[in-house]
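Before the break, one more example. Copy the sequence into your notebook; we will annotate it together after we see the structure.
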Amino acid sequence: MSTLFEIWNTIQTKLFPWLEQQVDPLSDKEREFVEVVCLLDLPSHMKRFLWRGFGRKKKSRISMAKAFIAKAVYNFETTDMLIEYLRSCKNLRRLCGWEMASEIPSSATFCRAFAEFATQSLPQRIHEAMVIKHCGEKLAGHISRDSTAIDAREKPLKTDKQETVPKPKGKRGRPRKGEDVTAKAPRRVELQVTRSLEENLKDLPTHCNVGTKKNSKGYKETWIGYKLHLDCIDGDIPVSTILSSASLHDSQAAIPLSQMSYQRVTNLYDLMDAAYDSPQIHSFSKALGHIPIIDSNPRRGEKILMEPATKCRFSERSAAERVNSNLKDNYGGRSVRVKGASKVMAHLMFGVVSITAMQILRLLL
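Here is what the structure looks like once it is written out:
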């Protein structure tokens, strides 16, 4: 069965009849799992996890990687639920690589493997390679950018309040000619324009804290956890993701997302809501050769309305909202049971990888 997952380009009409000669008839979820795994090219990403001949031989990491993909596809809340289902479902167990129920590793072994995957950013690497391979050479019309709240079961990090020397109060109004005025420190968005993607990602906070934002009805919502920032192209295909602290403003992740998406796909328009209405984001998008379409934020003065044609194109931004909703409702976005930014990101990325594979297959078939 291992050779099945090394051939990603076998078409669906010939894959399932041959497969069902070896296992029982596949259910809809099992077919979806097979479609996702066939597109990921897992063996090429699992070489760093192979046993090197030192110490006790590890359990098969590629089988457990498939199991974590199954966890996202089946939307299981916990790893224990996944293990219990694998023991009772012969088809899924054999598709993952275990012939007998006694071969399934323990919950502790699954946790150690997941920690390795999170440390090595395995799902992020799989997602990047899949996007570049299947979407990199094609022209995308729009990139829709948005963020979503991620609830976490951990305590928010309390920042130490450092004692600061109170600044002397100056006179109100415009300073006189020749008067010494202390220059304001540049904002994060202003610095991001001059830095690389790696520098910008290191500068973003990733600890768990409290976030607040207004929902679609104008009411404030508060949560403890993180925030997932996402870029997706036409066809509801996610191409870039960044996890940050819940308190980070959406605009501070826009430029790193633009840099990440620019390395993976080629697009024409950048679609963003009013939270991203910033001169630096406008200019950076234009510097990449894109046309920014950003909803006006009436911070100072009246709201600037879009022209009918621009407004019609801006309506394509709902793709990002659909992907966020799909991740939360069907691929484990609401059931984060791990702690720490790297593990939370790995958990979410297994769902993002599954969504990306399914959306790409819908375009290919």
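Residues 276 and 312 are 19 Å apart (CA to CA). Confidence is low (pLDDT under 50) at residues 1-15. Try to locate both features in your own notes.
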